[in-house]
Prior knowledge:
The protein has helices at residues 18-25, 46-55, 149-160, 180-184, 188-192, 205-222, 229-235, 244-262, 292-297, 300-316, 320-326, 336-346, 355-366, 413-436, 458-464; strands at residues 5-9, 27-30, 63-67, 72-73, 77-83, 109-115, 125-128, 144-146, 165-167, 171-173, 176-177, 227-228, 273-274, 380-384, 390-397, 400-407, 442-449, 467-469. Helix content is 35%, strand content 17%.
Amino acid sequence: xxxxxxxxxxxxxxxxxxxxxxxxxxxxxxxxxxxxxxxxxxxxxxxxxxxxxxxxxxxxxxxxxxxxxxxxxxxxxxxxxxxxxxxxxxxxxxxxxxxxxxxxxxxxxxxxxxxxxxxxxxxxxxxxxxxxxxxxxxxxxxxxxxxxxxxxxxxxxxxxxxxxxxxxxxxxxxxxxxxxxxxxxxxxxxxxxxxxxxxxxxxxxxxxxxxxxxxxxxxxxxxxxxxxxxxxxxxxxxxxxxxxxxxxxxxxxxxxxxxxxxxxxxxxxxxxxxxxxxxxxxxxxxxxxxxxxxxxxxxxxxxxxxxxxxxxxxxxxxxxxxxxxxxxxxxxxxxxxxxxxxxxxxxxxxxxxxxxxxxxxxxxxxxxxxxxxxxxxxxxxxxxxxxxxxxxxxxxxxxxxxxxxxxxxxxxxxxxxxxxxxxxxxxxxxxxxxxxxxxxxxxxxxxxxxxxxxxxxxxxxxxxxxxxxxxxxxxxxxxxx
Length: 481
């Protein structure tokens, strides 16, 4: 029979000393109490479904590799018996000893093993991954994972190298002995902080950025809007959007760990960050796509449909602020200046079309490439909707319709706010037009500015999901003579 290898997370961050328990009782174990999660039959919890499905594939003779988090491996073990049925529930963590979740005993679906000796660390030691060999976001992401050849070879080399063997210390953070008395007398705010907050608490730059990005993504989820990599990197003042991979990976890892703690599915928040060209996430899909190879072979449209299901989960999830609180973060408080500008925009009274606005409108209509539109002919000026609303310029190509609202250099900030809301309105009006004719088409609306969009309006832009092309200079009439 083919021997398979499995990594099983030993959650030392929530239960310091758990590895000692597993060593003595010769087992590894997973959670999800049979009081709510059953070993057979339907389940609506995707995290439990994945863990259950993988655990059911483990057979006697397979090898399990315990992962203690914080880049630490325990001693591998050869599987003797798989006892994960509801009737076999036998907790390895007593009631009241699992983080901030004392309601019941935990981790009782056992996989009985014989610990391997010889080339592996002795019982009082573990293997710590050297810093130069570490994988961003951790070595094992999920409760149970199949370890295939390439990763297995790497794990075994690390575990067998005696240079990596360190004394085992029960801990809630790598290398720091747990102190239960100290934990019990910590401040009230620290008691409320979930242990998963430790995943974001390091000093590395990507972790600092993850702490900045997490509330931004929650803000976008609550407003039901995706955000482009370029927009998020701009808001975080990052020069290169590609560096977001580690940032989003840290957020995804934290969400997965919190899902395990809460024993309920938390949707993959990081999937709302998408590429502007494709409309798809980058490497982050690996967090929530079970068959990545199959996903990559799908057409772009099929991928969007698959991701659309995840987006619905993210946008309909009601506990995002609770998630932030669990990892020690707070929701974003909106700049009061924006509310003031919205109030001014509401009271705005136009004074007719300015000359610089007219010139910019005509320039954009005659030169679609300056705002990033290729293959379009000249635009139609002052397109009128059935509501008598008028948008400055419209471009058409086959089934594509792109509406453009322009704001010249003399437009104050409150007029830019109007432009953001107008762009949302015009896109909705075009969709209504298509429905009234039983037609289909691709619709987009863009706000074009002569000046740069002020920093304090970028949050509003991202909340509304508006595409802004700024810094387009109004032509000087003297140069055309």
